[in-house]
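Listing 4. Sequential folding, example run.
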Amino acid sequence: MSLKQLIKKCSKNDTQAQSELYQLFSSKLFSVCLKYSRNYAEAEDNLQDAFLTIFSKIAQYRDKGSFEGWLKRITINTALQRYRSQGVFEIVNEEFIEDVELDIDDNDISIDFLLKIIQELPDRYRLIFNMYVLDGYSHHEIAEMLSISMGTSKSNLARARKILIEKIEDYKARLNSQSL
């Protein structure tokens, strides 16, 4: 069955088609949920909620742009809804934003360590970092999606990068002291 046929059947609440769509995309969307969740259990909840939204809105998909991109956007928005009402973002004055570059040498640290320290970031920093660095959203888009200012987005990204740099430097220092 083609993707178009699958979407059409899902829009008619065909449970077998919904199950097939879930099987096709759940692992990719779960990895998105993991990036935007505090832990594995919350990611599972976000995935479940995202698919409920996907199935209720699938008839609205108009075959413009990639279907996978549409699914991903719904999944990200579902995860972000948990944070919007919690006030996890600090409003900041844009004049005091320090831009911090995060330069990582792939030979120095493992991807597992990097993912671990990103997951350990406070919610507001992790969300902005993931949206900007990993998913390619602009500060304008992030500000709109999270109902915050662009300055808040930029500030939280800079703080996330600063924390990650400190953790990477600490990690490298521990490695160097162990090798002596």
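-- end of first protein; second protein begins --
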Amino acid sequence: MTTLTLQRASDIVDAALAKAHELGFRPLAVTVLDPGGNAIVLKREDHAGILRPGIAHAKAWGCVGMGVGGAAGARHATRDPAFFAALAAISEGRVAASRGGVLIRDADGEVVGAVGVSGDRPENDETCAVFGVQSVGLTADIG
């Protein structure tokens, strides 16, 4: 299993932010978590909303907690809102089932962490998350 180092996590965040700038997206918050849901890196751009870091964390935390990418979580939440209401209660509100949360997998397919991005439209957040993960040679699992 690949270890997600501080340097590699920082590179993911920086690449995600660079992609957002290239595409002209709104200011973002980006976080990378280890497989246990602990934050390795968090960056909040100037003028990103004060809730953005928490939302980014909840997107990533939901991915590692459920073992699926945010797109799968969002689809499931649409199909079964009662389950996600229960999940929100169980997790004390720490899960956001939304695009922009991406599992990070190594070459063997093992989950080594997750990235969460918040600040623009969910599909744009997801684009930045995927780019960041792929930029360091790992696999982004959107679900």
